[in-house]
Amino acid sequence: MAVAQVVRSEWTKVRSVASTVWTLSVALVVTVALGVLISWLTRREFGNMPARDRLTFDPTFISFAGMSLGQLAMIVFGVLVVSNEYSTGMIRTSLAAVPQRGVFYGSKLAVATAPAFAVALVTAFASFFLGQAMLGPHRTSLGEEGVLRAVVGGALYMTLIAVFSMGVAAMLRSPMLSLGVLMPLFFLLSPILGTVEATKKVGQYLPDQAGARVMQVVTIDDDVPYGPWGGFGIMALWCLVVLAGGYLLLKRRDA
Amino acid sequence: MISLEGLTKRYGEKVAVNNLTFEVRPGIVTGFLGPNGAGKSTTMRMILGLDHPTSGDVRIEGRHYAELRDPLKSIGALLDATANHGGRSAYHHLLCLAQSNGLPERRVHEVLDIVGLTAVAKKKAKGFSMGMGQRLGIAAALLGDPRILMFDEPVNGLDPEGIHWIRTLMQRLASEGRTVFVSSHLMSEMALTAEHLIVIGQGRLLSDLSMADFIRQNSRSYVRVRTPERERFLDVLRSAGLTAMETGDVLELDGVAAEQIGELAARHGLVLHELSPQQASLEEAFMRLTAESVEYHAHSGPAADEQAPWGAGWKKG
User: Fold this and answer.
1) 3-class DSSP state of A73
2) What sign does the CA torsion over B263, B264, B265, B268 have?
3) Does CATH place domain B2-216+285-316 in 3.40.50.300?
4) What is the Cβ-side half-sphere exposure of residue B119, based on CA atoms within 13 angstroms?
5) What is the distance between the alpha carbons of residues A89 and A79, in angstroms, rounded to a whole number?
6) Which of B65, B64, B112 is nearest to A98 (CA)?
7) Are the beta carbons of B71 and A96 separated by less than 8 Å?
8) What is the Cα–Cα distance from B160 to B166, expressed in whole angstroms?
9) For the range A99-103, what are the long-range contacts, defined as Cβ-Cβ under 8 Å and sequence gap of 24 or more?
10) Where is the signal peptide (chain A) (predicted)?
11) How far is residue B113 from each of residues A207, B116, B171, B175, measured CA to CA in Å?
């Protein structure tokens, strides 16, 4: 079984369903639009902000504010691209055509990650440049220390959000169940653990909170025990764990 | 050729497929018959490597499914007409399958043509009727021009014209020397298409015979008699050493020729209103066969079931 054949086949699958286009476009549009809006509001309110916030103001991170919502579409993309196989029964046809489950799984993940990364890259740069334009006098530029890393990091963060979702969907198979786990994780559990003082220490190791570190440029005055790439590494580790879980289950389970 | 050896599948306590051993040979249509829930689909999924057997072995042309290079070129299967993504067009569904096995795009158009879906090739599969879905599944099975074809209940949802089409197709494929394995829960369907018949009930092999032998062994022939002189007729039968089954005003006699009864009646001056040789339908034969399996199952107890399967298959995982 030539891997190249399976990769081509998976690419045909990804590009021939409408959900790919709409989830990825929603991710782009929502992230950029919300980032622009929040950047514009921040510029208007800058004078009213407490002095401490003004000193630690991170214009790069602010322009990525839309990701908190835009990642929802990335989650849906990651879940659908994998769980579609199961919810439609296509998996039996797919595995009869490609019985080497490892090749099938690896090709599917690689092929789905590529367009997610491309869209995330465009989203990150568009959010950054448009956000900075809105910030006016408070803006930063790509040349400043750590900014380029944060923008590329933003793209990688969004990509890994999709990859993490693919791994969870591979384990759970059902799209509803997968979204039922991922939504509360990213939109309830993570914000709650991150806000409450007593649980912050735990919350900062969740994939989204750790991964988001790579998008920040100004990180004065907090006691997070990892750097930008350290945080990103924690997120990548989470992805590896769920992907491995998905692989083991796919290997063992009846289709 | 498909070869099963001691193939067994358990789900917890339940044995879905129990120690099946048989071969499906090329050049003929082999019917795979059993009531709903007999384990036909589970067996077919194991043949395709989709479900892992608890024990036993199944091989395609002597090799395990997972060892096949570009399996669609060796075996094509229609398992479930809805096993496709509803949002994907028929063309793209077949294209992604073709690409995965290194088949040219030209082949997609050819099979669409064979099953008569060319006109709707760009339409999404969710708009398809059951019959069109069935045709799309058959197109996928034919894609790699395989030597072995397997169809799970292919006539389901087809209109009479479609049923005629699939029967003719299966017979043509077999006449080209291919192995054709087709499941059904309808004896009447099998009688029209299959040359060889494998019958299972409750996951167990009940019969593995040519259709002709199956009919010979399983269909009961008897003579039906109606007479106004019932009591005298029964006396005459008794003295001739024959017994009759009485159902209403009709008498049924097993294992005796109609001619013999007629001559006997004439000798004793008996009036007969009916004397006709009868053949029980294949449907009845099938039902009797599977009913017996249920009975056998109930009396045998669990011990008999559980001897063979364990052990052999574990090393293969």
Assistant:
1) helix
2) positive
3) yes
4) 3
5) 16
6) B65
7) yes
8) 10
9) A99/A1, A99/B48, A99/B49, A99/B65, A99/B66, A99/B68, A99/B71, A100/A1, A100/B66, A101/A250, A101/A251, A102/A247, A102/A251, A103/A1, A103/A3, A103/A6
10) none
11) 50, 5, 19, 21
Q: How far is A70 from chain B (nearest CA, A)?
A: 24
Q: B221-279 — its CATH code?
A: 3.30.70
Listed residue (B162, B65, B129) closest to A92, CA to CA: B65
CA atoms A169, A171, A173, A176: torsion sign: negative
Single out the residue of B55, B76, B103 nearest to residue B313, CA to CA: B55
Residue in chain A nearest B51 by alpha carbon: A254
CA nearest A4 in B: which residue?
A: B100
Q: Please give the DSSP secondary-structure letter assigned to residue B45.
A: H
Question: Which H helix or E strand runs over B18?
Answer: strand B14-24
As given in the structure block, the two tokens for residue A98 are: 């490609």
What percent of chain A clears pLDDT 70, i.e. is strictly above it?
A: 99
Domain ranges of chain B: 2-216+285-316, 221-279
What does the pLDDT average to over B28-36?
Answer: 93
Judging contacts by C-beta atoms under 8 Å, the chain A residues touching residue B317 are: none
For residue A98, the chain B residue with the least C-alpha distance is B100
Residue positions counted in chain B: 317
Q: Tell if the CB–CB gap between A17 and B52 is shorter than 8 Å.
A: no
Residue B94 has pLDDT above 90, yes or no: yes
Give the ipTM. 0.91
B313: three-class secondary structure by DSSP: coil
Q: Is the pLDDT of residue A166 over 70?
A: yes
Q: Are B233 and B251 in contact (CB under 8 A)?
A: yes
DSSP class of residue A17? Answer: S
Listed in sequence order, the residues at least 6 apart from B188 whose beta carbon sits closer than 8 Å to its beta carbon are B282, B283
Q: What integer pLDDT is reported at residue B207 of this predicted model?
A: 92
Whether the CB of A10 is below 8 Å from some CB of chain B: the reply is yes
**pLDDT tens track for B150-199:** 999 998 878 899 999 999 999 999 999 999 999 998 888 888 899 999 99
- Please state, in angstroms and rounded to a whole number, the distance separating the CA atoms of residues B285 and B209: 14
